[in-house]
Amino acid sequence: MPTPSTVVDRAVACLLGGALGDALGSPVEYAQLDDIRAEFGQAGVAEPPPQALLGDATQLALFTGEGYLHAWTTGNNGGNWRPVESTAAAYRRWLITQQEDKPQPGATGLLAEPELYANRAPGLTSLRALQEPELGTPDRPRNTSKGCGGVDRSAPLGFAPTAEMAYQLACQCAALTHGGISGWASAGALSLIVHLVAVQERKLPAAVDQAAGRVLREDGEAATALAEASTLARLGASVGHIERLGQGWVGPEALAIGVYCALAMPKPEQFADALRLAVNHSGNSDTTAAVTGSILGARHGTAVLPRPWLARLEMADVIERIGHDLGASCSGEQFNERRYLGLA
Predict the structure, then answer these.
(1) Which fold has domain 15-34+55-75+84-92+145-332?
(2) Which distant-in-sequence residues (6+ apart) come within 8 Å of 39 by Cβ?
């Protein structure tokens, strides 16, 4: 088993890697490949912009982490363990950042971070669902959406104590806003993959196979997408393979493309190229690259993250802090629990 410090390092890398992918892909999120190449050259986008701004996927991933950590610290200090409710409350706090211009006096946690009060083209499904008085569950969905907005925020839940808990929590937290089975089951699959490679030190192909088998109980679409991603990855890295997997606007496609790029370029020294592969296609470039970055960060740790890219990344210190605390909670290391106990 990995040492606690290894788990912490991988948790930090998971969140930072996902944020780098998100920032790399955000400028071309809605662009066709021909248009990307016309603007950036035949190789496409090669690096994040000088100011690598967080996308909505990273914003929500941070609130996922904060919500989970509120539940963990509350339970660890004699309170009730209610991770889904705590994460739902965190998503409501994120909604405040999309409705107001700056933190209110006395704001705590992520609500006190001015940079988060920025609209980065969030998905309408999440925005609409979070404004409703009652959120969804897998058994009581509030809509039929299988969009990618559940999967692209679920990686932090991979640092739950067990593999099955990581899967279940991610499914339940995605179902708060995305009621289609493929929308929440694909989130569970990503969280499970992150847990298996970061916490249990499974090899990535084996982790993907295990996730495909687990998600098959709920959703054949996500399971089939993962199986196809594995098959195509064995044939090498190609934008044509990505096109066979889809564009990434729905959960299973975003998951499959992100997993495919991680499998096709799995070596530590290929991290940047894997993110470039995940970005340069006609589809949801920021989400697919965020998934790739989260997986490879969780697999390899912070040593693979390009330092010049990190120097440009908005709120890198906050992302690192949340990642550290997630890894510490999972591995039994101490961290500042007071930071999360007082959250509403």
Answers:
(1) ADP-ribosylglycohydrolase fold (1.10.4080)
(2) 31
152 in a labelled binding site: no
CA distance 139 to 69: 25
**pTM here?**
0.97
Separation CA 208–CA 251 (nearest Å): 16
Domain layout of the chain by residue ranges: 15-34+55-75+84-92+145-332
* 286 annotated binding-site participant: yes
Q: What is the pLDDT along the chain (344 residues), one digit of tens a residue?
A: 566 679 999 999 999 999 999 999 999 999 999 999 999 999 999 999 999 999 999 999 999 999 999 999 999 999 999 999 999 999 999 999 999 999 999 999 999 999 999 999 899 999 999 999 999 999 999 999 999 999 999 999 999 999 999 999 999 999 999 999 999 999 999 999 999 999 999 999 999 999 999 999 999 999 999 999 999 999 999 999 999 999 999 999 999 999 999 999 999 999 999 999 999 999 999 999 999 999 999 999 999 999 999 999 999 999 999 999 999 999 999 999 999 998 86
Q: Is 287 annotated in some ligand binding site? A: yes
